[in-house]
Amino acid sequence: MYIVQIASECAPVIKAGGLGDVVYGLSRELEIRDNCVEIILPMYDCMRYDHIWGLHEAYRDLFVPWYGGTIHCSVFCGWVHERLCFFIQPHSGDNFFNRGHYYGSNDDYMRFAFFSKAALEFLLVSNKRPNIIHCHDWQTGLIPVMLFEIYKWHGMWQQRVCYTIHNFKHQGIAGIDALWGTGLNNDLYYLNYDRLQDNFNGSAINFMKGGIVYSNYVNTVSPHHAWEARFSDIGYGLGHTLEIHQHKFGGILNGIDNNIWNPSTDNHIPYHYDKDNLKDKVWNKKALRERLLLQDCDKPIIAYIGRLDDQKGVHLVHHAIYYALNRGAQFVLLGSATNQEINNWFWHEKHHLNNNPDCHLEIGFNEELAHLIYAGADMMVVPSNYEPCGLTQMISLRYGTVPIVRGVGGLLSTVFDRDHEADRPPEERNGYVFYQTDPHALESAMERAIGLYYEYPDEFKKLVTQGMSCDYSWNNPGDKYMEVYELIRDF
Prior knowledge:
36% of the residues lie in helices and 20% in strands. By secondary structure, it is an alpha/beta fold. The strands form three sheets. A nine-stranded mixed sheet has the order 3-4-5-2-1-6-7-10-11, with helices on both faces. Helix 9 (279-292) packs across helix 12. The chain is globular and about 70 Å long.
């Protein structure tokens, strides 16, 4: 099958969050299954060019219709760790992708409307006719709209669209003028509740809603999050639209790349190990303490890795630090804040705890250190307010680090409480789950985990090995996506 992924990110060349990891990991899995996969991306000035091999101009003069004229673009081609990627570079005074950042401009909706138009125009004029066009998040929500309303009349009538929503919070809500440049210029037609009109702002369009309405299949990134999006406020206003299109909506859990996240081969950790040889995990714990200047003792290390923002339950992250220290554990944090207030808060905590031999807060992100923390920690807290899928808990399980998570989204689809998961036999349970957003709920789960570590070390080791036996690779999600592709290809 010929599949084209169109997205605003692809790790490691363009990565602002989990979207980039998914685009790369899924593409790799699909190629393993003998599919032909190509990826179309914006050519940002700030992307990691050092991760592209053989970059060259593949299509010199792409003229993209935009308003009453055209914008001249070049399309470059290169290999990103064996994935074939095309990068669209507009030659325009708008400097759509020469901003020094991926997101955050006031005209992001125009930037990605143009990217979506340019991606389709490139497929059209280069005579590429994939079986499946797989689009991701609001940035590409207009692609299925334009495919159905414009490009199918120009020879692209057989292409089918799978649209994956990674985060419902960001939907691409804009004025009707966002459509004018693309050729979707019938205001009354598109500003309709059954098409692109935002569900709560009658004068605005919603890119993500357009993707839902016009795609052949829509999914989010875990089965439980799919339920949340339809029946709770996690859908951020799109619940009714998902209800209307429930026949083509589902949840497919993301995976992790076992070539990158593998404690038996990981080049970022000093000692390799697996579930049958856990003694060397202890040496990674010692190496982590040495690197972060923590005291060497018999205390468990509890960690947090991730963004410091409201989505991630930052108030509970803060509480977890002090509860761990008061309960006789050590705590390690690696994360960057998304706003100045939270950044200042955690820098204050870092200075306050600077001389504590049982705590280290690393404000920022370091890939190598992240691997060492996964390998050296005993437990990982993931207290998210909402979490569409989450990779932290999957990686933690892979590295034998027991996850302590809030029961939302993909966390509930991957972590099963050791004590209270009635639907799973004891040998399939792999962590601890709490449900409320208050500190007492977090404490109850942390207390059970720390208590097991101290009082029943053999049972704790058993829980570790059960977690390491879980398969959260791309193998099963690859099967699910292939089923979707086969289904919609026959429409």
